[in-house]
Specification:
Length: 127
């Protein structure tokens, strides 16, 4: 039960403090000739053991490399959002480290949301 309360409090704080996360939802283009399938498979292997902090960090590093090569990779972006949230919630013990991980999750989430043309169009209209 306390984990649910913690998650609700986290999202409430994010909503209340939304001004700290203003910015763009821009997404770059994939580099030509990019094949990130091997890097994705390696990161996925680490992701399976994400209950271990070192394995989670290895997965996040791998997904970041995938996104660096292909900023449109939705799965890697989604894993970065979930992974950094989990790093803060499940592995970090200091409040400052938790907040840093959650802020990183938010920033990856923005890039992921930037892939949705309808979402970006609504932002451009000021909605």
């Amino acid at each position: 039960m306390s984990r649910n309360i913690h998650s609700i409090a986290f999202f409430g704080l994010l909503t209340a403090c939304g001004g700290a996360h203003q910015g763009t939802y821009e997404v770059g283009a994939a580099a030509e000739g990019t094949d990130s399938s091997a890097a994705m498979a390696e990161a996925d292997g680490h992701w399976q053991a994400r209950g271990d902090a070192a394995e989670l960090q290895a997965a996040l590093t791998g997904y970041e490399a995938v996104v660096a090569a292909d900023p449109t990779n939705r799965v890697a972006l989604e894993r970065l959002v979930r992974g950094y949230y989990f790093l803060g919630d499940g592995h970090n013990t200091e409040d400052a480290d938790k907040l840093a991980s959650w802020n990183t999750a938010i920033n990856w989430g923005k890039q992921c949301m930037g892939l949705n043309a309808d979402f970006v169009a609504q932002l451009d209209k000021g909605e």
